[in-house]
Design a protein that fits this description.
The chain has about 120 residues and is an all-alpha fold. Helices cover about 75% and strands about 0% of the residues. The protein has seven helices and no strands. The longest helix is centred in the first third of the chain and has 27 residues. The radius of gyration is 18 Å and the shape is elongated.
Length: about 120
């Protein structure tokens, strides 16, 4: 019984640290997909070169993605979700956030434009 309680406590501590790390990395990095990669790669004991092999890309591309210098292609997101056992819809959403952010980040009226887009999307539903 004691061992079972100890295991549950250590599992709870792991999840607490995982979510704290997720919060830290999502605020530290500019791109949500980068934050997910930074969190999930060590959790699955994957090296960048192993992930690159599974995605059929060069290791330097994955390194650039992790640094935020490059983005993955949309076609690679479902495969990434499968490799990392992550939610495909969530990763696709984060990928789209990266795309939109890259498009509007230097625009002075980005907030107003995004609010208008949201209104238009809601009207078409």
């Amino acid at each position: 019984m004691f061992v079972k309680c100890l295991f549950l406590l250590s599992l709870s501590a792991f999840y607490l640290l995982f979510f704290m790390a997720q919060l830290y990395f999502s605020t530290y990095f500019c791109c949500p997909v980068v934050a997910q990669l930074t969190i999930l790669l060590p959790a699955y004991h994957l090296l960048l070169r192993q992930l690159a092999t599974k995605l059929d890309v060069d290791t330097s591309i994955i390194s650039k993605v992790e640094r935020g210098d490059r983005q993955l292609k949309k076609e690679q997101i479902p495969l990434l979700a499968e490799i990392l056992q992550a939610d495909k819809v969530e990763l696709e959403t984060l990928w789209l956030v990266d795309q939109v952010l890259d498009l509007v980040k230097d625009q002075p009226n980005a907030d107003e434009a995004l609010k208008s887009v949201t209104k238009k999307i809601n009207r078409t539903k």
